[in-house]
# Entry
Amino acid sequence: MDRGTLDFYDANADAYAACSETDHGLQHLALFAADLPSGATVLDFGSGDGWAAGWLAAEGFDVLAFDGSEALLDLAAQRPGVRTELGTFDSFDAVEAYDGVWASFSLLHAPRADLSANIGRLAAALVPEGRLFVGLKRGQHEARDALGRFYAYFEPEEVIEALTENDLEVLSATSAEGKAMTGDTETFLYFHARSAD
# Structure
């Protein structure tokens, strides 16, 4: 995990939390949750301040918020019913532990070359027929934004390839325009997938 990115989130946790929940995010979270069994065990991978984890916990799911920023996890831990774990992409090694994994705009903080390996880690963490959501941003490059955060950008075809080569069935792949924390308009990519039975 990029140190400069983590430093930004640790220093600006409250400001990030104020803009992390979006209408598009809530729409996709509801779609993701609708496919989960009652009381499912769910991982919010790269949870940030835990807005999604808190929503899922309120819906009756058993939720773990996993993130590399201590300051953001402190905020997530304040949400009722949410457990937290500090960790990075490389330290995550769960196997068949979750009915669903929500990875909303977290994998884009790792290099483009690591996308398939990181999706493979999330696929391994799913039970058979488990559900995965991945949110990313569209592009073909790596860069730091105006706030100093590292980002990797992807074309939809690249993400679909990474999902399918990790034995995940792509249920939907959509996109929408949205505002980043910097105020820039970007294209957000949304993928819903299912693991093999």
Remarks:
- The first strand starts at residue 41 and ends at 45.
- The chain is about 30% helix and 30% strand.
- The chain has a mean pLDDT of 95.
